[in-house]
Structure formats: C-alpha cells, structure tokens
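Dear support,

I submitted the protein below through the web form. The confirmation email said the job was done, but the results page showed an empty box. After a refresh the structure appeared. I'm attaching both so you can tell me whether what I see now is the final result or a partial one.
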Amino acid sequence: MWMRSDRVLVGGVILGAGLLFGTVGTSIAQDAGSAVAPAASQTAAPSADQRSARERGEAKIWGLDGEAKDPAAGVALLEQAVAEGDVSAMRTLGDILMWGGPVPADPQRGVTLLERAVKAGDGRARTILGKHLLGGWVIPRDAARGRELLEERVAADDPDAQTALSQFYLYGTGLPKDWTKARALAEAAAKAGKGEALWKFGEMLMWSERDPQAAQAALERAGELGEAGAWATLAEGAMYGFLGGRSTSRAKFAGYAAKARAAGNDRIEVLDAIRQMWGITLRASGPKTIERLTEAADAGNGEAAHYLVALLRDGNQLNIRKDRPAAQAALDKYKTLFTDGDYERYALSIEAARRRDPAGLAAMAERVQAEPGALSGDGAKQLYAANPNLAIYLIQQDLKKQGLYSGPLDGLAGKRTIRGMARVCRTLPGDLDCREKILSPSVVGAILTRE
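What the results page shows now:
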C-alpha cells in the first residue's frame, strides 16, 4: 500500500515509517492475537446459582451479564469447571492462556487444555490449536499437525477453519503462499455466511493491483456478509486510486465511507483524517486533521484515539509537528479506549521517542527488555515508529548474542547490521522480503518479536 508518511533516517537509510503500517500483508497473527470474549446474551441471564462454573467464569473474566470484571476469579471458576470435566471450559481457558490479555499468558498450560479438549472431540478446540501450531506465534510451529487439524475441520465444513486456513495460504504463514487455495477456502466460508476470509483475500488482491474489479467485487460481497472492515478497505483503496484509476477510484470513496459508517466501522474516521492531512480531495490541513481525530476519539472511537496519539508522538514532517507532551496527554485522556497493555506500550513508545542519544538507547533497551509484552500486539510497530534507532539497537543486541553481528551497539542500520538482519529474516515465516524491504516495519517487527 502506498502511503505518504513520516520519513526517518536510520544509519544513513531513509525509510517511510508509515509504509506497510496499514492493512497490507497483515499477518493472520493479528486476527488470532487475542482470545475473543463470548457475545453478551440478548436474553435475560440465568441467576448465578443456575449457571455453570464455566458460564460464571466467562462472565467474570469479560465482565458480562452484569458481573463485575474479575479475571482472577473467572479463571478460578474455569479451572473448577475443567476439574469437573467441562470440555468447553478446557477450550475456553486454553484459548485465553495462549495469548493472555485479561490474565497472564501461559501457553504451556493453554496447549495442555486445548489438547485435552481436542482429545474429547471438541471441534472448536481443533481449530484454535491448529491455528497456533501452524502459526507458531507463542508455541513452536508444527505446520504438519496444524494443517492436519484445520483440514479435519474444513472437511467438516467449519467456516472458522476455512477462514483460518485461507489466510495461512494467503499470507504464506507456515504454508507456501497459494492464492488459489486461499480463494477457494474463502468462498467456502462465504457460502456459510462468514465473510472475513473473502475480505482479506479481496484486500490483498486490491493492493496487489492484479485485478481491481475482482477485488472490488470480493470486498463488496464481504461487506454484504457483515464485514464492516471490508467497506473501510474499499474506501481506503478508493482514496489511494486502487479501484480503477485515480479520479474514477476516488469518486467511489464517499459511497464506501457511508457504508462503513452505517456498519459501525471505526477506521473510516481515521481515513477521513488521513485525507485531510495529505490533501486527498480535500485541502491539506494539519490542525483540521487533529481536530477530526479528536472529535472522533471524544465520541468513543478507539482507532481514532490510537492514531491521534501516534501522530502527535511522531508528527508527519509536513503539517503536524511532533508534540510528545500532547501525545501523552491524549493517551491519558483516552485511556479507556486502550487496553491496559496497549496503554503501557504507547506510553513506553512516547518515552522512547525522547531517548535517541547512546546512553538513552541503552537505558530504553533495558526498559523494553524488562517489561513483558512490551513488543507484543503492535508494540514493536509503535516502538519502531517512535524511535527506529532503538528498534535497531535492540536487534543489534540480539544479533550479537547469536554471533551474527560484531559491530558497535549504536542503533544505526549499517552494512553489518543489515547483513545480520537478513540472515535472521530468512529464517522467519511469512514470505518476507529480506532484501528490498529489510528495513520495512513488517520485517523489523517480525525480527523484533521472533522467539
């Protein structure tokens, strides 16, 4: 995806810090990166003494059905349900422990619980465990078994498994990239009423510019299946000229933006602010951009709040200056729109942005390494955007430990650093470009967060 963006100097190399920060090539890990809270019941919940230990545990973990949010108590109830042989509780708790979030992650225990649920015949546990084994995000990759588990569920016409396997083939994560298989699986899931894989396929097809009409058709179908993000993707493609030529494409923005808003999509307000910032069919204005994002965040738009904090932290080298005190003030003002982990990661990135001298890099590297989860989620991306030299410094430290770098720890991406990064990059999944895009956010983030 082309995007004008902040440009930063790293060891003599100019790079766009915003390039690929959008949805292009998004790994399936981002979709699978957290356990999903069960939907709140639309009917009156049974009284506490009528609900099972698992139901009460889920309610306490996520704060549902009138329960005060108490993750620790919720886990205790789920453990009780597991001890009673509740297979759904094994799957639910296993899923939560793989990534953590409401409670600390414990992948080893998570795998044990998921394996028990799989052995008991739980199909959803098969899909969850298959995704983790194939993705290799928090446990060692076992691509053969992961694919086997997912294919078993695909054979049973499970749209969740079809969606997951489609994206593994689409992005080349753990499997060779195969868009033909990705599309077939996306179509199968769409027939069952699930449009996520069709959305992701259409998105990749659109940004690749292989077939704009087919991409538009796939994304529209995904939107009609209830994927609000597909309408926002279409709006984004329209504004950047990816839907049939620049003027023809941009004329489609308003219609897709209206559909995205009607579907309750938050990202569309960020896209409108980006149009204002860069002057895409609007007069470019930094102050109006900040005003748009602030209004959206005031209305409870979490995506706008995240984008606003990052923009104030980094500036854009055109019409918005870096203002780190304002970034911290915005982060504090909109704290309720961030998860606890995201709040800490953004706060760390703001602090890191101020520390670019050698002593500061060393001190911040120590801080990052001492904080569990500092690079999880989009932490690596935010850290690289805020202080690319710190990200390179952290990579240099790791390369030294592996004997892949003998130069100074200076945070500069010189030839020896690039050579070491490329060697590590070639061992990572996901069909990364380890030559031309070795300093892109997607590659640097993958190197920073690798096990």
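Response: this is the final, complete result; the empty box was a page-load delay. The beta strands are 7-10, 13-16.
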